[in-house]
Every structure is written in C-alpha cells, then in structure tokens.
Amino acid sequence: MPSEIWQYLDFLGVAVFAATGGLVAARLRQDFIAFLFFCLLTGIGGGTLRDLLLNVPVFWTVNETYLYVCFVVSIAMWFFAHKVEAWGRPLRWLDAIGIAAYSVMGAAKALSLGDNVAVAVLMGVASATFGGILRDVIAGQPSALLQREIYLAAAFAGAITYTATLMTTGDSNLAAGLGFAMALILRGGAIARDWYLPSYAPPETKNADKLD
Amino acid sequence: MPSEIWQYLDFLGVAVFAATGGLVAARLRQDFIAFLFFCLLTGIGGGTLRDLLLNVPVFWTVNETYLYVCFVVSIAMWFFAHKVEAWGRPLRWLDAIGIAAYSVMGAAKALSLGDNVAVAVLMGVASATFGGILRDVIAGQPSALLQREIYLAAAFAGAITYTATLMTTGDSNLAAGLGFAMALILRGGAIARDWYLPSYAPPETKNADKLD
Amino acid sequence: MPSEIWQYLDFLGVAVFAATGGLVAARLRQDFIAFLFFCLLTGIGGGTLRDLLLNVPVFWTVNETYLYVCFVVSIAMWFFAHKVEAWGRPLRWLDAIGIAAYSVMGAAKALSLGDNVAVAVLMGVASATFGGILRDVIAGQPSALLQREIYLAAAFAGAITYTATLMTTGDSNLAAGLGFAMALILRGGAIARDWYLPSYAPPETKNADKLD
Description:
Chain A is mainly alpha-helical.
C-alpha cells in the first residue's frame, strides 16, 4: 500500500467529513459539544464501520491523531462555519471529497487485509457513505441517499475503479488517483449538473407488458 | 450443526430479505444502485449484526457468495418487482420467511460458538429483525416494530423453540424445523389474521388499583 | 480497577437505562415483548457499542446476568411503570443516573485495556449516550441530543473528570465517585434548572464582523 498517499487520503477524508458535521451543527445552532459530536460522528463514522466489518481494531483506537483532527476541525468550524458557508454549497462539495477519499481508502484497507474484490468494493462504499448517512439521520436532515442524484453510485464507481486498476496494473498510486477522480467527477456532476441515473419504472405503463 | 439445512436456511434468509429490500426500493422509485443498496442492507444486515455481537468474522467477508446472492436478487427485483407486487403483500410474507429463517440461524450460530441460551435467543431475535428495521428506518417507512402486531414476538418464539428443542432432544434438524415453523406461523397469523399480544394498559382505569 | 464499584456501577447503569426503555414502551402502549426489546436496547446498547469499538467480547455474551437484569426490569416496568411515572420526570432522572454511571464505566474499561485518554473519554461518552439515543430514535421520540440542554456535555464532563482524577491521583474509587458526581450534577442541572451551553451564533449579527 502506498503509505503516504493512504495517510494523506485518510486524514483528508476524516477532516472534510468532520467539517461537514460541523456545518450541520452550525445550521442547527448547536452548542460546542454538539459541534464536537457531529465532527466526530461524521469524521470517523465511516472508517469505524469499515473496521468493525473487517474485524480489525478501529483505526482511531490505534492512532488517536484522528480524534485530535476532529477536535481541531470542530473548533475551526465553531469560529468559521459562517465563512465556509459563504463559499456556496460547501457541505455538498466537502462531502464529495470525503466520499471520493473514503471510497478508495475503504477498498484499499480491505484488499490489504486479503479480502476479495466484492468485499473491497462494498467496504469502499460503506466507509464513504456511512458517516454522512449517520450525520443526516441524527440531524434530521434529508439524506442524499434517497434523492434522485448520484451518491452511492459515485462511491461504487470510485471503489470499483480503484480495485480494477490495482488488479490490472498493480500500481496502487495510479489506482488511488483514478478511483478518487472517478468518484469525485461523478459526485461533482451530480452536485453541479444534476447528473442522475434512470429510476425504476414499473412496466405497467408499457404496452408490451400490458398485453401479457 | 446440520450443515445442509443451515446453508439452505442461510441463503434463503439472505435472498428473501434482499427481495424485500428490492421491493422497498421499487416502491420508492429508486435507481439501480439504490436497489443494490437496499438488497444488501436488508439481506446481510441482520447476520452482520449477529456476527459483530458474537465477535466472529462477518459471514460475507468469509464467503462472498452472499454478496452475489444480493446482487442477483437486486437485478431480479429491478426487472420483476412489479410482478412480485402483484402477488399481494409479498413484502410482508417474504419478510416473515426471512424472520423465521434467521431466528433459527442466529440462535444456532451462537450455540455453535458455545454461547449460553439467553445469548442464543437474543441473537436469533437480533439477526431476524435488524435487517428489516434498517430497511424501514432508512426508507422512512413505518416499521412493523412498533405496530400492534406480532413481529418481535415471532422471532423470540422461533429462537426459543429452536433452542429448547435442541437442548431437550439434541436433534438439530427437528429443532430447526420446529423453530422455523413456530416463527412463520406466528408472524403469518399476524399478517393474515391480525394476531396480536395484549398491550400495556396502565391500571389507572382499574378499580382495584384506584383504591390503593 | 475497583472491581466492586465497577460491578455496582455496571448493573446500576444497565438497570436504570433498561427502566427508561420500559417507560418509553409504556408510553407507547406496547406489548410485553416490546417492553423487553426496549429494556434490552437501552440497557445494553451503550455498553455494546463500547465493546464493539474496543474490539473486545461484548459484555453480555461473557456474562448473561446483564440480560436477566433487563428481563427482570422489563417485568417490573410492565407492572409498575405507571407508579414510576407518578414520581415526576422519572425517565429523565433515571437516564441521568445511567449517563453518569456509564460515562465512568466506558472510560474505565478503555483505560483498563490500555487505550489512551482521548479514546477513553470518547468511550465514556459513547457508552453513556448511545442506548438512550437508540431508544429515542426507534421510539420516534425527540432525542435530548439536539435540544438546547446539557446532555452530551454531562457525559464528556464525567468521563474527563474520571480520567483526569485517575491520571493525577491514581485513586480509582475517588475518580469513579467524582466522575459520576460531575456528570450527574451537570445533567441534573439541565433537568431541574434548565442549564445549557451557549449556542453557535454566526457573527453576521455582530458589528465587528460585518465590517470585515
């Protein structure tokens, strides 16, 4: 595993997810402890689920630096959330970066533990989306999960791209870069240009099926 | 443990729970990725909780066939959910079969690991109901959990019947069959005939208590 | 670790949290199985999360006495919930005792396993609040989590007080007593006197910032 890229992606994913948690706490006009709670929940939630499912020690019990990252982000958001909000849709873009980073990291950790590709892809998706889902459910906000936009699909695409590239080229730096880019492009397209996938349409409305 | 009955019950439980996830995705008019998500969440959610609580490797990280079962079911539901819906209350009946299968499986896995009967019964209940609870919470649907019908009680009855039969007769095939039947009959009675248990009624309305 | 104080705090935390679960089931006019479910969920939920995160066997799979405690409490609440309700705000006060007990226990268990202080504090908070959060989310009740009152902060204060006292004095009895008292006083102040922390106020409304 490319330890430097991994470590940067890992801190990046935790920090940007933590920032989205702080933005939600700010929108809800919470106290500082709630800022810290949402930063921790969103920042380390996805990676925690990944490690529980992979049956390995949870990453922040091994290296508590991740907790301090969330703590620093919660202080920063307490003072600067209003400035970040002024950027325009910061929550969704930071969330997109977190999804892209974690879709690669989740898959990479599973593969490094010897799990097969199906498990690796699922770990990428679970760790990329679980923190944000927790954040939205507990904050009572509508989750991107059930909306008509590309969200889970971006995490799937990132994890599949990483895994497939690593399997075919063996170049983990290239794989991490391509996977991250793929997820970010798809999720970014959903945010900026309303990209979406076709929805389920029961065939009652099609003539061919009506005649069955 | 009767490895064949176990394996059949296991795939059966995963597949029917996955199918209920696909039905919910279809009702919500979701895209295919959401079908896959709901099939996975509901299909493997209960068994995943069971394995996390029992501190053993999660079953689908050991055997990824379960993931492919969910994938196949999600494709099938994408094309045929409307036909399954035409059967009449398919979601509740498939859910009932899943509950019956998992109430036995959860208890059996705990007992096979040397856990005591109280833990085994609880594992049966947790693994039988957690996937469906997750499905309903995330889909924003009212869960059967809090409604005036037999739901948790069927899982308890199945797990207790399995455990008690195995303890007294030592015949795990008989125990699995009786436990599965007990849970399915009780849950089926709730679906078809509105069976329910008496609710809590505070005794303010009883004369004897009023005189205290 | 002071094994006796620990064990008392542990049973106390499980029993009072279980009682709050029973009170919620009674308010929802549920059947007995739902009483048992809510007692178990609230009673052992926090400690279960703690043990999963710490990667140790879940406490009630090692010692099933905790399950029987919840079972006994569920029977007691089935018969006496109306009498407990007559005390006035019993749910919130019992919840406060549970939070105080678990904020110490969660931190103590993490420290006894060799985890560092940041992890220990987080374990105190997670195990003190998770059972109650689960109870409220599943019951569809507004959680204390997002309300303008001291809730998470009490758990943080209890865990930090315990950890800091133990680190400086080495006296675990003193640490447990001080931590428990600190959390109970803060949470009690929130219940009885509406104590709260300052909320996030974006500086758009401050002159100094407006001129930036």
